[in-house]
Amino acid sequence: RTWFVQPEISKNKRSHLIPLTTSTLEILKKQHRVAGDSPFIFPHFQNKDDHMKLDSLRTAITRYREDHPEIEHFVPRDFRRTCKTLMGEIGISKGLRDRLQNHALNDVSSKHYDRYDYLAEKRQAMELWERKLSQVDVENSNIVNIR
Q: Which residues have C-beta within 8 Å of that of residue 125, sequence separation ≥ 6?
């Protein structure tokens, strides 16, 4: 129930172990079915033997905003900022949020001595985050049902 990001594809060139929650696994299983026989979880829409373009999310956001001009401007990295902020609001420490986002930890202790993967702590934080997202989803569906 983890996803290992290899250092060569990580922005900071450090490996990253990400705990996967139940809902994440369900989404990935659905995506695997959608991808069919592609070797990629997110294949290119025209060529299943290639991965999705790196700018696909930005393009999708741009198209969405064109169709919904009332939506305030945002870019993909805003998801990271929002996630980090909201995780702080529900009590996840900054240090753990930094680890979840694979930020480079440059203090002497983190850089040279601390080799612990924090998987248990990251998993607990992700499960807390999943519960929060589920709560928001229920609250939003209740609002839609009231209207």
A: 87, 92, 96, 97, 100
Q: 52 and 43 in contact (C-beta within 8 Å)?
A: yes
The two three-digit tokens of residue 123, written as one number: 């998993």
Ordered DSSP codes for 125-140: HHHHHHHHHHHHHHHH
Q: Tokens 């601390």 correspond to what residue?
A: 114
Q: Which residue has the tokens 């991808």?
A: 35
What one-letter code names the amino acid at 85?
T
Cα–Cα distances in angstroms (integers) from residue 38 to residues 51, 56, 78, in the given order: 9, 18, 30
Torsion of CA 94, 95, 97, 99, to 10 degrees: 160
pLDDT in 10s for each residue of the chain, 147 residues = 999 999 998 988 889 999 999 999 999 999 999 999 999 999 998 999 999 998 999 999 999 999 999 999 999 999 999 999 999 999 999 999 999 999 988 888 887 898 899 999 999 999 999 999 998 877 776 655 554
- The answer to whether the CB of 111 falls within 8 A of the CB of 121 is no
Structure token digits, residue 39: 């070797």
